[in-house]
Amino acid sequence: MTTRIDGKDVAASVIETVKAGAAALKSSSNVVPGIAVVIVGEDPASQVYVSSKGKKAKECGFHSVQHTLAETTSEADLLALVEALNIDPAIHGILVQLPLPGHIDDGRVIQAINPAKDVDGFHVINTGKLTTGDVDSAFVPCTPAGSMLLIERARGKDLSGLNAVVIGRSNIVGKPMASLLLMANATVTVGHSRTADLPALCRNADILVAAVGRPEMVKGDWVKPGATVIDVGINRIPAPERGEGKSRLVGDVAYEECAQVAGAITPVPGGVGPMTIAMLMANTLVSAYRHAGQTPPSF
Ligand code: NAD
């Protein structure tokens, strides 16, 4: 029987640990975890993400600030804000919402964030630590970190002897996902847009992670019977059956047909999505503990 992996449930338990950890840090050291979210421009999807991050931070008992900058903000002004946040002792996590407007170099801004406050885990110091296995002092990007917790629920922490296939090689999902799976002893292959026979590669996977951005690309006959399937994709497609102009969210995996074959599978929505924001809160809490010289809770 296929297990539907409920990301909302797992995310809720992460948030409970974060809340308890924040309360404990406040009473032991009088430190309140602080997160600053910076958004440049008016992209509606980004606005939604940013406001839900702020709400979740408040729910966790964090100090949360949002900096909303005009689309025309110069790179120099944005870098000056990042620098001010880098040295602000009340802020333990800095998140610059991507994408940035075209006249600003995303890379330059991300690399200007103090790596010890880079709760998105995108700074090269953090990606370097992850690939060399030093996760205890790194920040791991939230989406792969959350996906990994879901995989642990299905297969345990030690993936020795299992084949894992990650589809997608982006810096924010595919590559860090592959590093985490490798650290858990899986045998890892990364498939991407230039892979010769992706369905055949996927059929070999005990753990299949799709992070592509192509609606329902992974079909039922790509899935090895009993495999754990983690669908990172979030794609909005037209849903005329719901009324004119309506749309709905689907993943990179054709859920219904893959669920017939998989041992465990994440839905979209309600799978990886809620984990991403929960892990952002977890990373911010960990940062506050590190800044206070205390051992953070583990997730
Ligand atoms: P990206 O566009 O940066 O990378 C996509 C990757 O897919 C690339 O490496 C590319 O080589 C590969 N690819 C593209 N077409 C392919 C094809 N036909 N066959 C095989 N591989 C192909 O995207 P990303 O930022 O890694 O995000 C991937 C998906 O995950 C998107 O749908 C995004 O919305 C979603 N996402 C979800 C969350 C979450 O919280 N659940 C977070 C980040 C991203």
Task: Please explain how this structure is put together.
This protein is α/β, with parallel strands linked by helices and 299 residues long. Helix content is 40%, strand content 16%. It is built from ten helices and eleven strands. The protein has a six-stranded parallel β-sheet with strand order 1-11-8-7-5-6. Strands 3-2-4 form a three-stranded parallel β-sheet, with helices on both faces. The chain is globular. The chain starts with a strand and ends in an 8-residue tail after the last helix. The mean pLDDT is 97. Nicotinamide-adenine-dinucleotide binds at residues 143, 167-170, 172-174, 191-193, 198, 211-214, 232-235, 272-273, 276.
Number of alpha- plus pi-helical segments: 10
Helical residue percent?
Answer: 40-55%
Ligand identities: nicotinamide-adenine-dinucleotide
- Overall 3D shape: globular
Which residues form runs of ≥5 with pLDDT under 50? none
Strand order in the largest sheet: 1-11-8-7-5-6
Indicate the proportion of strand residues.
Answer: 15-25%
- Major sheet summary line: 6 strands, parallel
Structural class: alpha/beta
- Average pLDDT confidence is 97
Set down the secondary structure blueprint.
Blueprint (H helix, E strand, L loop, with lengths): L2 E2 L2 H23 L4 E7 L3 H16 L3 E7 L5 H12 L6 E4 L9 H7 L11 H8 L10 H14 L7 E5 L6 H10 L3 E5 L6 H5 L4 E4 L17 E4 L3 E4 L8 E4 L4 H5 L4 E2 L6 H20 L8
Parallel strand pairs: 1-11, 2-3, 2-4, 5-6, 5-7, 7-8, 8-11
Antiparallel strand pairs: 9-10
Helix pairs in contact: 1-10, 2-10, 6-7, 6-10
The structure holds nicotinamide-adenine-dinucleotide (NAD).
The site of nicotinamide-adenine-dinucleotide has 23 residues, from helix 10.
